[in-house]
Structure formats: structure tokens, C-alpha cells
Amino acid sequence: MGKKNNEVNDFANLSFEQALKMLEETVEKLENGGLTLTETTDIYEQGMKLSKTCSNMLKATELTISKIQTRYSDETSTFNE
Amino acid sequence: MIYSVSQIIAKLKKHISQDDFIDLWIRGEVSNFARPLSGHSYFTLRDEDTSIRCVMFRNSLGSEFLKDGVSVLAHGKFSIYQTRGELQLIVDVIQPEGEGNREIEFQKLKVKLSTEGLFEPSRKRILPLFPSKIAIITSPTGAVWQDIQNVISRRFPPVELVLLPTPVQGDIASQAIVESFEHIRNDPNIDLVILARGGGSIEDLWPFNEENVAYSIFRSSVPVVSAIGHETDITISDLVADVRAPTPSAAAEIVVPNINDIYNHISIINEKLQNLVFNFIYLLNDDIDNFNLRQKRVIPDLDSLKIRLGESTDLLDTFSRHRFQVCLEKMTGINSKLDSLSPDNTLLRGYAIVQGLDNKIISDIKEIHSGNNIDVILRKGKFSAIVDKIKKNN
Hints:
The structure holds two protein chains of two kinds.
Chain A: H1 2-13, H2 16-32, H3 37-57, E1 64-67
Helix pairs in contact in A: 2-3
Chain B: H1 5-15, E1 24-34, E2 41-46, E3 51-61, E4 70-81, E5 86-99, H2 101-115, E6 133-138, H3 143-155, E7 160-165, H4 173-185, E8 192-197, H5 202-205, H6 211-218, E9 224-228, H7 236-240, E10 243-244, H8 248-255, H9 259-298, H10 302-341, H11 343-348, E11 353-355, E12 373-378, E13 381-386
Parallel strand pairs in B: 3-5, 6-7, 6-8, 8-9, 9-10
Antiparallel strand pairs in B: 1-2, 1-4, 2-3, 4-5, 11-12, 12-13
Helix pairs in contact in B: 3-8, 4-6
């Protein structure tokens, strides 16, 4: 129980790039073979979780936009482009 | 007196058509040079502080010397373009006067920075595949900022864009760009930065040829994508940047992947995962089947074995009984032979056995002498005797 929760949390802390890389690695592990049934199902389960994590990370449909205040942030007149 | 616009422009035009303005030699640097299909040349002539629009009609003398950044002596006259009320110099002769100051400055700085290794391909950083926070150094009011937002929002929405409002032309621009790079250094979550500006004249783009901007790009804490002016404009900033994009929109395309490609990639991986596991289980089933088959082969069918065992026992039984019979018969034969050969039977037939003193059987006449005591064994008993006469056969 504790272990599974940790796993989910671990995935939540991953960057998208890391999660995708781990996902690709699960496929590699399965492709290399030589695994027991338990190992195979564990890896498969992990792969499915990672895949879900990746998909969730992509779910944002709108850009997040922010500004860093610069000395020129309010002087719109200086931006005579 | 009140003039209409046309009236006052016409009056001005007439005023500058006088001697003072119709036979002039002017020294300046060429910029914004363009020659459309008409063959006429349009450019700006400028010095440090001021510029003037110029037109040079097709086949005028020296038009081949026109090029952005060159210093020239231009001969011509002033005129006002009536429709727009614009003052312009109509040039009829151009003489080259060495390279312009900006061009010289540009080349000097390029050589210097190149020697210092700022353009080295080996120091160009690779852009992150999936940036989550992208900084944009540009003007907040221009189309560039809008274009970048549009492209990224279409291609890959799950990112954060951080705008650093920065003037991108004029005297304050280079210092402002340097400061924006310093702000980026303070945010460790920023993955990369786009330094962008829309198209403009050489003067407009000049801040991107400044040394301090070049060093800022070089020392940036994250990879820099430059997108300055049009594709044909190459600034020092473009040369130092890790990646040069031809336009701001192109920069936005470069820095993020297409989200649909990523979704496809993930679904292909999912499919692969499933196939691999199904295949594994399928093979496992196969193994189990094979194992069962092997087991059947290794552990024989007990019933048939019992039958075979029974058969064998029967066979053995028959066989051994037969052997026994044969043996028994042989034994009887041997016994009767033995019987017939036994001394008893011999005695029965009338023979006698002669024994010497030591009970040694005497079978040859040579072993006996007259006067010897002997025992003679007959059937059912024996007697003792003394040898009287000896008669040997020949």
C-alpha cells in the first residue's frame, strides 16, 4: 500500500521528459525479455501508470502566461516597434 | 492664412525646387536598400543622428554601388513626394566612399567575438525536448509576442510562457536586453529563452549587434533561440545564440514539439506495451502446454504399463516353467548316468575292488607282491587276504 502510494507520488514529481523516458524504458525492458511473469506484470503496470501520467501532463489546453517585471514593464511608450 | 494639406505641401515643394536644393553632394551611409522589379532603387541615407529617404531611378549612374552599410557620396536634389508629404532625395549619381561605420563596426566585433569563441559550434547548447517554462525577451506591444503565443498555444499548450517586457530598438534596447537576461538567471525553472524582434531597418536591429548583448547571450543560464528581423538579417546575436530561427514564429515552432506527435508517440508505446505483455502470456501458455505434453511423455501410462507387466510376468512364468522342465529332464538323465557309473553298480555286476594297506585302491598288478595283505571289496562286504602267487599278463 505504502509502496504504491510512493510510486504514484514519484511519478507526480517527474518532468514530462523524465516520465516519457521511463515509459520508453519499460518497453525496452519488456522487449529485452528474460523476465518472470511477476516482473512482466509489474513492469506493465508501471508502464500503464507512466503512460497515464504523461497523458495527464499534456492535458493543459491553454498556455500559462506570466510576466517578469522589468524596468521597462510600464513604459509602453519605449516600445516603439 | 489657412492652407489645406495639399496647398502647403505644394508650396514647400516649390520652395525646395530652388537652386539651394537641386545640385547637392551629400555624404551618408546606405541602409534599407531595396530594388523592386521596376528597377528603381529606394534606400535611406544616414549619419549618426539623421536619415533621409532616397530614390534613385533606373539606369542612374553608380546605382551598382548601393548596398546596406556602405558609405557613399550621393548627388541629387530634394523633392517632396506630394501624396505622402514626404521629403526625399532624388539621387542621380552615387560614388562609393569606403565602407560605412556600422558595417566596419559589425565586422570588427564579429572578428573579435569569433576569436573569443562565442560563435563556436561546440559551445552551442541543445534545446530541451519538452520545455515547461519558456522566457521571451521582446517588446510586449509588438506582433512578435502575439505571434509566439499563437504558435505555441497551437502546437504545445502545456507550457508556461514568461514575458520579459524589453524595448528592442533605440539606445536603451541593448542595456534592457542585458538586464532581461539577468532576470532569467534568477528563475531556475526557466528552460530556455527566445530573444525576438520583428523586421526593421539596420538601425532598428542595431542593438542586436552590440557587444554587451552578445556577451549576455553567451553567458545566459539557459539555451537561447534568436529570432531577429527577417530571414535575411543576420545579427551578432544570431551568431552567438544556441539556435538561430529565421523569424519569431519559426522560433516558436522550434522550441516546442507538436502535441499531436507526442500523443501518437505515447499511444504507440501503449500498444507496444500491450502487445509485449500479450505475447509474453501467449508464450507462457505455450510453455505450459509443452510442459504438459512433456510430462505426459515422461510419466508413462500406468494402466498400459500394468498390462505390459502382466504380460511379461506371464511370459516369464511360461518361460521359466519350461526351462525348469528341461532342467529336470536333464538332471534325471545325468542321475541315471551317474548311477550306472557308481562303484556299487559295478560291484553288482560282479567286479571287486582291491585295496592295499593304506586303503589305496590297487588297479595295476605291478602295485602288488606276494605276501601282501590286501582287502577285497565285494557287494555287501569285504574280506582280507594274503597274496599267494602273482601272475602278470603279457
